[in-house]
Specification:
Strand content: 15-25%
Strand order of the largest sheet: 3-2-1-5-6-4
Radius of gyration: 30 Å
Distance between the termini: 85 Å
Number of domains: 3
Shape: elongated
Oligomer: single chain
């Protein structure tokens, strides 16, 4: 028998074991009053509560059981879709595994209407970021994974909001986190805000609103605007750019708040505003207080500048403050 013949025979044998097609097994069951063979519904019902994602589906069912379900996909499909009507993330995982096309409209509806929030222990719930963490929205992650598996594309390509849907989400997501306790259904509103971010295409760019809310982590391992004490040794500025002529000394920072950095970070010595702090000399050790900040500089392409420019780019800086 060829390898293909062996594989077919193995699948048929497995299906017969699950469906009770083998005559000898049927006779034996009748003699011993064994229960009827497991059906598609029995198999899926028995797995309830054990499949949060597609990987769980692969782990929960044996290879023979998955072949059995695939063989009977015409029965699996309506069962899964009925459960999706109730926003069932487990049904989403099964739909994603078998790539059931008819489940897409139901997955889309569940994604847009479910407002489930897990509420993990650990995050600081006084911070807005705790409510915008992906891990809080386990139902939605299951819907998203299934949609992307079925469509073989990104979520923002597979689910395009209509103008009415976008406006509805935008209005629902309008919550003042600082005054959340006085606003009804504010947790549902935070879910809508998280969802709106997921569904708004950015082509890889970071939305300005997200930067304002979460901030930027600097090269020193602290968010921009965090006042820290840095130490290191001053070196001569190696840059030959005309714009750097006013910054002859570079701070080679090796520790932050007494803790060593993985590697040195170089910043030109710059003062925050008009503060009066002595600039260390080249080769001199320093301990200074200040904070990281950043922004865009230069001129975008498409405009011919009459002055020297490095082009439109993002730059960060460490601004020195007086000692306490």
């Amino acid at each position: 028998m060829t390898q293909r013949g062996i594989a077919v025979a193995t699948l048929i044998a497995g299906l017969c074991l699950l469906t009770g097609c083998a005559a000898s097994h049927s006779t034996k069951r009748q003699q011993q009053h064994e229960p009827a063979p497991m059906t598609v519904r029995d198999l899926l019902e028995d797995a309830r509560g054990s499949c949060e994602n597609i990987a769980d589906v692969r782990g929960r069912f044996s290879a023979i059981e998955l072949q059995f379900l695939q063989y009977h996909i015409a029965e699996v499909e309506p069962y899964v879709n009925v459960r999706l009507l109730g926003c069932d993330p487990e049904a989403a995982a099964i739909a994603g595994y078998f790539r059931i096309q008819s489940s897409l409209p139901l997955l889309r509806h569940a994604l847009l209407t479910d407002r489930y929030f897990y509420g993990w222990e650990g995050p600081d719930y006084d911070q807005e970021s705790a409510y915008l963490w992906d891990g809080q929205y386990t139902h939605h992650l299951a819907y998203i994974e299934a949609i992307e598996a079925i469509t073989c594309g990104r979520l923002d390509q597979a689910v395009e909001l209509t103008p009415a849907e976008f406006e509805q989400l935008r209005v629902e997501a309008n919550v003042d986190f600082a005054k959340r306790d006085s606003q009804p259904n504010w947790e549902r509103r935070m879910c809508a805000r998280w969802l709106l971010r997921k569904l708004t295409p950015t082509d890889g760019y970071i939305p300005m609103e997200r930067l304002r809310e979460t901030g930027v982590l600097g090269a020193l391992g602290r968010p921009f605007g965090t006042i820290v004490t840095v130490s290191g040794r001053a070196i001569a500025n190696p840059s030959h750019r005309k714009a750097d002529d006013g910054y002859p000394v570079v701070l080679r920072i090796t520790t932050v708040d007494g803790k060593p950095l993985p590697g040195p970070v170089d910043y030109p010595f710059m003062l925050a505003g008009s503060v009066d702090v002595r600039r260390p000399g080249v080769g001199e050790a320093f301990t200074l207080r200040g904070f990281e900040t950043g922004g865009y500089d230069g001129v975008p392409s498409g405009f011919t500048a009459t002055w020297q420019t490095a082009g439109f780019h993002f730059e960060s800086a460490f601004l020195v403050l007086p000692a306490k």
